[in-house]
Design brief:
Elements: H1 3-33, H2 40-59, H3 65-90, E1 102-105, E2 108-111, H4 112-149, E3 191-196, E4 204-210, E5 219-222
Antiparallel strand pairs: 1-2, 3-4, 4-5
Helix pairs in contact: 1-2, 1-4, 2-3, 3-4
Keywords: Membrane, Transmembrane, Transmembrane helix
Protein name: MARVEL domain-containing protein
Organism: Amanita muscaria (strain Koide BX008)
C-alpha cells in the first residue's frame, strides 16, 4: 500500500537530481573561468548541489523518516542560502541590456549577457529546489503523523518504505491488495460471511474476517 509513496519519493529525488546537476554544471563552469579572487559564490554553488546529490544517493535506499526529515531540513537551509545569495549576485539585472559587454576571466573574457543568463538559471533552480524540498519535508511530517494514527508509534525509526500515502494504511509495501485503503483515522471494519452448517450438524454459524493491520494476516473468528 506504500507503492504510491515510493513512486512519488523517487520522482521527487529524480527532479532534485536534475536541478542539482544543472546548478552544479553551471557553477563548475564559473569556477574554471574566474580567478581566485572571485570564487566565493562559485565554490559554494558547487558544494551545495554536490552535497545534495551525495546525500540523496545515500538515503534513497537506506533511510528512516527521522533521518529523512533532518536531511530535508538541512538541504532546505542550504538551498535557501543559495537562492538568496544568487539573488544578491544577479539581483534584478536585465540580461538583454548587457549585450556586447564582457568580463575578464583567467583565459580571456566572457560575455556578461551569457553570465547573466547562467546566473538566472542558477537563481531560478535554487529557489525551485528549495520549494520542492520544503514541500517534501511538510508531506513527510504529515505522512508520519498519519501512520501514528494507525498505531505505528515508532514510525519515525522504521524504514521509510513503510510510510503510506494519504488515505492508506502503513506497512503494506508491495504486499497489500490494490483496493485495501482506509480513510485516515478510521479502523477497518470486520466483514461477516454467513455460511451453512456442515453436513450432519444442525443450525448455522457465521465467520468474521477482520483485515490485518500493519501487514499482519487477517483474523478469522467463527461462532
Amino acid at each position: 500500500m506504500t507503492v504510491r509513496f515510493a513512486s512519488y519519493r523517487l520522482a521527487f529525488y529524480l527532479s532534485v537530481f536534475l536541478l542539482s546537476g544543472t546548478v552544479l554544471g553551471l557553477a563548475a563552469h564559473f569556477l574554471t573561468l574566474f580567478p581566485s579572487s572571485n570564487r566565493n559564490f562559485p565554490i559554494f554553488a558547487t558544494l551545495v548541489p554536490s552535497l545534495n546529490i551525495f546525500l540523496f544517493l545515500l538515503s534513497i535506499q537506506w533511510a528512516v523518516p527521522r533521518t529523512e526529515g533532518m536531511l530535508l531540513a538541512l538541504l532546505a537551509a542550504l538551498w535557501l542560502t543559495m537562492g538568496a545569495w544568487s539573488t544578491d549576485v544577479i539581483g534584478y539585472v536585465q540580461c538583454d541590456a548587457l549585450a556586447g559587454q564582457t568580463d575578464p576571466t583567467k583565459s580571456g573574457s566572457m560575455s556578461l549577457q551569457q553570465y547573466c543568463y547562467e546566473m538566472k538559471v542558477i537563481q531560478a533552480f535554487s529557489w525551485m529546489t528549495f520549494v520542492l524540498v520544503v514541500f517534501a519535508l511538510i508531506i513527510l511530517f504529515q505522512l508520519a503523523t498519519q501512520a501514528q494514527t494507525f498505531g505505528r508509534y515508532n514510525i519515525w525509526g522504521e524504514p521509510i518504505r513503510e510510510l503510506p500515502w494519504f488515505g492508506e494504511a502503513p506497512g503494506y509495501y508491495n504486499t497489500g491488495a490494490p483496493g485495501q485503503q482506509y480513510p485516515v483515522g478510521q479502523v477497518p471494519m470486520p466483514y461477516m460471511y454467513p455460511t451453512m452448517a456442515p453436513y450432519g450438524h444442525p443450525g448455522a454459524h457465521s465467520v468474521i474476517v477482520q483485515p490485518g493491520v500493519n501487514g499482519l494476516p487477517p483474523t478469522i473468528t467463527q461462532f
